[in-house]
Amino acid sequence: MQCVERAELMVRLKQREDAVMQALDSRAQTPTSIKEDEVLAGELAERQFSWRGAERGVHIDVLRDGIRDLANHGFISRDIEQQVALRRALGVAVNETERNSRGQWVVWQAEQDSLNYFIDSLWQMQLIGCPGDRRYRWHTLCGAFLRADGRRIDRSIKNNICRNPSKREAIDKAILAGLAFVTGHRH
Questions:
Q1: What's the pTM value of the predicted model, to 2 decimals?
Q2: Does the pLDDT of residue 120 top 90, yes or no?
Q3: Which stretches of 30-164 are DSSP H helices?
Q4: For residue 33, what is the enclosing H or E element?
């Protein structure tokens, strides 16, 4: 029975990935004169990453603690809904309702270079993935996170390298060091 359920889950995930890839490809071919960060975001996030942390031994509580610490450091709101939104943006759904719906946007309250560092670090630790893999990593980020002022993040964030050691240290201390410890990844 578990094999059948696993197979059905794999089929649903593949269908979801195909739909996302088709949408991304058609969007990339559509010319536009409006900058992406000027487009208003809908109520629900457009994309989310897929969480690979379970395969690497990361228990949900470790992730939740790290998200709470990110909130305490001011990277996201301390509001529980934003903490849930970040968990969901990283691809962690805890029940059937969450697995079959989209989450809210995550409003990143710090500079974009720190968001870039956060997501890039999770990617390097192989804790997150996305449909289309590396090619659509930044598209996924831009479909899950908003700037502090509520505007969309444009795709140039991939060129926004965090060089400030204090920003990196704050994110490391809040979440990345704990995740690296659990996974055995040298960060």
A1: 0.76
A2: yes
A3: 60-72, 80-89, 96-99, 112-124, 137-142
A4: none
> What angle in degrees, to the nearest 10, is found between the helix axes of 60-72 and 80-89?
130
DSSP string, 49-73: -EE-GGGGT--HHHHHHHHHHHHHT
Closest of 111, 122, 113, 116 to residue 138, by C-alpha: 116
Residue 124: which of 86, 179, 75, 74 has the closest Cα?
A: 179
The secondary structure of residue 125, as a DSSP letter, is T
104: three-class secondary structure by DSSP? strand
CA distances from 42 to 21, 30, 46 (A): 20, 19, 8
SS3 (DSSP) at 156: helix
Comparing 28 with 49, the larger pLDDT belongs to 49
Return the number of other C-beta atoms located less than 10 Å from residue 75's C-beta.
Answer: 23
